[in-house]
Predict the structure.
Amino acid sequence: MKKVTMFVWNNFVNDARVLREATALTEEGYTVTVIAKKEMDELHLPSSETVAPRVYVNRPLKIELPKIVRNRVKSSILSKHLPNMLEMFKMMMLGRSSDADIYHSHDLNTLLQGIYSAKLRLDRKPLIYDSHEVQTSRTHYSFNKIYKLEKFLLRFTDHVIVENDTRADYHRRLYRKKPTPVHNYSEFYDIEAVEAFPIRETYGIDPDEKIVLYQGGMQEGRGLFKLLDAFRDIEGARLIMLGDGKERLNLIEYHKQLGIEDKVIFIDRVPYRELRRYTKSVDIGIQFLENTNFNHYSASSNKLFEYIMAHVPVIGSKLPEIEAVIESEEVGLTVEPESTIQLKAAIEQLISDDELRARFRENAKQAKFKYNWNEEKDVLKKVYRKI
């Protein structure tokens, strides 16, 4: 049986995208091992486990420098990067020892691990680079540094995967070779068979109030502060903010400053399969990305497809990939990505117009048959067959 080793720069607990890809490859007869990370505050996570039939994960523990060493080098670049360098080395050793038939690096921060495992050996193995983001155009990233690094490392890859056609065209303009788009669609499931989470009963939401949901990472550029601004004067609805991230505490503090504690509910991140229970319980889904860089501009957004799979009307940004789906399938409304005024107007329109929400829900029931992983996974399988 052929083996695939994947690398991810996370703990592989809620990485639904990579798990979908791994399970799709098991249908082609592969056994997949995912090499992930484990921080010192994640000792509760098993070092290795089976997460699906013939899908395994290894989590080497990140090494923390002794305090005396940290004190001596605390002002140097070494103290910041050495733990990550040691983590990468451990992943390299695990990757090489797995002796896979194909190696698969998810994002730029695991590509070096893939190159070492697949290419720096006598019997070279195929290497796939699966870039979930536009690495050269992200918040706080230097284009020149990332471009030079990515361009050099791409020499060692056999195939490149990106999220959609907009990103594939961008990649081709930079590196003169078009990669394969593999969309991050939701897995197909019947939302009617899912038991809804009792949001109204749990959080005391009146039956006549509409529930607006943002689910996902609370990071810069997601339009979340503007979303809170929009909700300041909205009546007849509650906003659920479900997830975590670097901006979560700032968002909680900001909503208190706005005096809208009675309108907004923050819920910690829940396991991926539990998430659909919450999504089913809401009336409107929000995907209000800001156009702060090309990574956001070109995003397809898995949240959009999760809303569609749960038949939830969407309010999304007028960015090419998001707008194309919402407008063509008529599953929601689109607004300019920086406009709090348009966002507020769209939320108020959907809150008040029961017929419009019902029409969007019915359209989503049809769109889900087009935008789902069951349809998309064959693209990934063809890449592997070609290799």
Notes: The mean pLDDT is 93. The chain is about 45% helix and 15% strand. The longest strand covers residues 210-215. The longest helix spans residues 77-98.
